[in-house]
Structures are given as structure tokens and as C-alpha cells.
Design brief:
85 residues; 5 helices; mainly alpha; 5% strand
């Protein structure tokens, strides 16, 4: 019972880290966010994740909107404080 409770607590904690003003980052957005801390271009990140440049732009737009930032440096800073990267 204690182990089950601990597992639920950890899941709730992780979910709270992924939530920004009621919106959750998707698993794919988290993957893109992890690449943003590198010096890879949008095209190179897309190739690494096997997605098109336009899909990358859509993910970036959604990430920036959810995190309320304007660029990858700001997004990376928030991701580091939330321990996502």
C-alpha cells in the first residue's frame, strides 16, 4: 500500500511539472524541448526526430505558447528549472 501511494505521489509530481497554466506539454513537445538546449537547427532537430520542418515549427509554436516564452533560450531555461532537461 505504501509503495502504491508513493508511486501515485511521484506521478502527480511529474504531471505538475509538465503543466503550465492548465496546459500540459505532450510527450513529443518534451522531446523537442530537450533538443532546444543543443545548438541544433530546427531542420536538424526535425531530422533527428523524423519529423518535417513544418511539424517542428508547429511544435515550437505550441511549446512557446504553453511556456509563455518567445525563444528557445527562454524555453530551455524554464525546462531546466522544471527538471525536464
Amino acid at each position: 500500500e505504501s509503495l502504491g501511494r508513493d508511486c501515485l505521489d511521484r506521478i502527480k509530481e511529474k504531471n505538475s511539472l509538465l503543466q503550465f497554466d492548465g496546459e500540459h506539454l505532450t510527450q513529443r513537445e518534451i522531446e523537442v524541448l530537450r533538443y532546444l538546449s543543443t545548438d541544433y537547427s530546427v531542420e536538424k532537430i526535425g531530422k533527428s526526430l523524423h519529423i518535417s520542418k513544418n511539424t517542428m515549427k508547429t511544435h515550437l509554436k505550441n511549446i512557446y505558447r504553453k511556456l509563455k516564452v518567445d525563444n528557445r533560450k527562454q524555453a530551455t531555461a524554464i525546462a531546466k528549472t522544471k527538471l525536464l532537461i
